[in-house]
Amino acid sequence: MANLKEIRSRISSVSSTMQITGAMKMVSAAKLKKAQDAILAMKPYAYKLKQLLEQLSSALGNDSVYNERPEEVKNILIVPITSNRGLCGAFNANIVKKAMELESGVYRNMNVKFYTVGKKGNDILKKTDKIYRHETHIFDSLTFTAASELASELMELYTSKQFDKIVLVYNSFKNAATQIITEETFLPIQSVAEAEESAMIDYIYEPSKEEIVKELIPRSLKIQIFKALRDSVASEHGARMTAMHKATDNANELKNQLKLTYNKARQAAITGEILEIVGGAEALS
């Protein structure tokens, strides 16, 4: 009977876990809808603005402080964007893995530092002793103002020549079950590819190209950061919803297996008691 008691206790424990994971799945699904609507509405505008700024920056050349510099690229700042909470599958691990692959691969002969955004990424990467700075509170209340402050800080690090290149690594939202690991150059602004130069539109600028770019480039970069953060938030909720859905299914499967084991053990115990009674009766006769 002690064995039956242990199985009953495990069934109760698994049932409680299943209720928790089910509740977390529903909460993430509710948050995902809002985050998904926000990022899907923002992406076309952010993409078009970035495309426009790349064309304008290419036309300006070295006149923009945000364009590529003639000096050799030596100092790299990688900005991995993770979450502050776990229980979202491989969401955070994939970003950290990608950041470390860049550090040991493409930029292995350069001075690489990490600017971690999100607690989980910082907890892992701080062991490398290459953390330049970290930000863990931006997701407490994600607003354009908070994203602008982060973008301004990154722009200052580039224009002051502390870093020659700044790279964002984050999860781009595709759907609830799919997040695309994205490596995106934040600064310098990438020049328009030769294949696209023929398709460049000759805009008429008022008051002037230089003045427009001076105002638009910082705003565009801030929107780029805001989009990456929103992408990461939507991806996090999707990853957590998927992880909790799988956890709930696994818990339900384990619960059914435990019930079957319990019923078999109970049946064996009953059969054993019957055999003892029958054996005792035969001995008395």
UniProtKB/TrEMBL annotation:
It is a peripheral membrane protein. It is found in: Cell membrane; Membrane. SUPFAM superfamilies: ATP synthase (F1-ATPase), gamma subunit. HAMAP family: ATP_synth_gamma_bact. F-type ATPases have 2 components, CF(1) - the catalytic core - and CF(0) - the membrane proton channel. CF(1) has five subunits: alpha(3), beta(3), gamma(1), delta(1), epsilon(1). CF(0) has three main subunits: a, b and c. Belongs to the ATPase gamma chain family. NCBIfam families: ATPsyn_F1gamma. This is ATP synthase gamma chain. It comes from Capnocytophaga stomatis. The gene is atpG.
